[in-house]
Amino acid sequence: MLIANNRRTDRTAAQVAEFWGKSLNDREWFDIKASGKDSAELLIYDVIGWPFVEASELVRALQGLQGADLTVRINSPGGDVFDGLAIANAFGRHDGHVVTVVDGLAASIASIIHQAGAERIIAANGHIMIHNAWTIAWGDHREMAKASDMLARVSGQLAKTYADRTGLALAKLAKMMDEETWFIGGDEAVAEGFADSVGPAASARAKFDTSIFANAPASLVSLLDTAGGDPTKRKAEHALRQAGLKQHEAKAVLAGGWAAIDQRDVDAAEVLASVRKLTNQLRS
Which of the residues 34, 51, 113, 276 has an alpha carbon 20 to 30 A from that of 156? Predict the structure, then answer.
């Protein structure tokens, strides 16, 4: 979940799009259509909200479906916090039964949207991830202090939302968010209260890169759409991230070899040892 420091400028939009590995021209992330006289289906299958199509467009579409039962299918790495909250609140106001279904991944703010369903379902092979709010910010120490305070307050509010739906203690949820916790498979999510039931395994694919997250599980690689990208390179970057490199370090290694990163900040021997253990990922 990302907050662009409340500065929705062209410069910030470009930074956010780069963060997600997307083009600003690739704007569509949801599709909504009537599936019957009194029912509709909403697909949320990409990065949510600004700087792409904003949540206000989705909310307006929902207003035309009042009274219809709504099935929301989610396969998203997250997106803009405030847009995600607007969507979750719109589900709460919707005059119809709302069922949210994790088809593949509900990470970050997408997991909050999933919690907004009156009924929450997750595919047997689905994933949910919760973590603290992130931001893109710049400025002096005062601006950084403001950003830190804002992130702490937003994360606290998100933890309360999880607590209301799961029944878990706030202290436990705060620890889970600090550690970037993944629920791998429907049974894990239901056991912790993040879903009400497990649905059939889904074959949802995703065109997003989960290497931005620190603890993305290897099992999630199977959900990635390799069309338009090099699957071996994606697996290699994921393995390097699992081995302890930061995202920019992993990308630098793939682009220019070990000499491309500052070895003073990386224990190369330790990383190489870890990478060897993960070689099977690249060969599978």
Answer: 51
Q: Which domain holds residue 21?
A: 2-225
Domain shared by 197 and 126, yes or no: yes
Q: How many structural domains are present in the chain?
A: 2
pLDDT tens digits, one per residue of 245-283: 666 667 677 776 666 655 545 555 666 666 666 555 555
Check which CATH number belongs to the domain holding 74 and give it.
3.90.226.10
Is 283 in the same domain as 147?
A: no
Averaged pLDDT, 164-171? 96
In tens, the pLDDT along 195-232 reads 999 999 887 666 676 777 878 787 675 554 433 345 55
Structure tokens at 68: 């219809």
Same domain flag for 269 and 221: no
What the block records as the tokens of 154 is 């937003």
How many beta carbons lie within 10 A of that of residue 154, not counting itself?
19
